[in-house]
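Researcher: Here's the sequence for the chain we discussed earlier.
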Amino acid sequence: MTVFPATYFGSITYFKALAQHEHIILEAKEHFPKQSYRNRCDIMAANGLLSLSIPVERPNGSKTSMDEVVIPNSENWRARHWRSIKSAYQSAPFFDYYGMEVEELILNPENNLLQFNTKIIKRIISWLDLEITLEHSIEFHPPIANDPRDLLGRKGTAEEFEPAPYIQVFPSDEGYKSTISILDPIMCIGPMARNLLIERK
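Model: Thanks. This is the structure I predict for it:
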């Protein structure tokens, strides 16, 4: 049984880990942690790495479980996120192919963060032709050593820069991080982004 956090347009690292399994349990009963990729993603924009964050409300404070986290409609964050993504990737080779679906996912009025993220994860799995089934946990599963919820869901994890394995719209002078959103390779190389995830034997 492999338990993963439900992330917002998760990173290349996140989807590479997902791709190693045929069935994934998305943790629904964990207490929602601050400063994680559950409601954030990083894209490469003209001025460098840009972090996009979904505003959330925790009805039960620090004891709010992931499946109780609410996305408020009081802020126009959806339009801002879409404008940022469009500005970053509208000149990318595959923007015309995936852009409308990304816009649809972001403008989806779903106000439950877990359900919102799950729809995004399922769509990305479909785009990359990954044979993965998903379900939500019905009880909390305590973390184990090297637990994906910690390693893949935490914002600000240290990582070495390395050469980018594909041509980016806005290549960074500092280098490339695989903690960037999977949107980056999807927009730049389309279905070939799958090759970044699958371990070659």
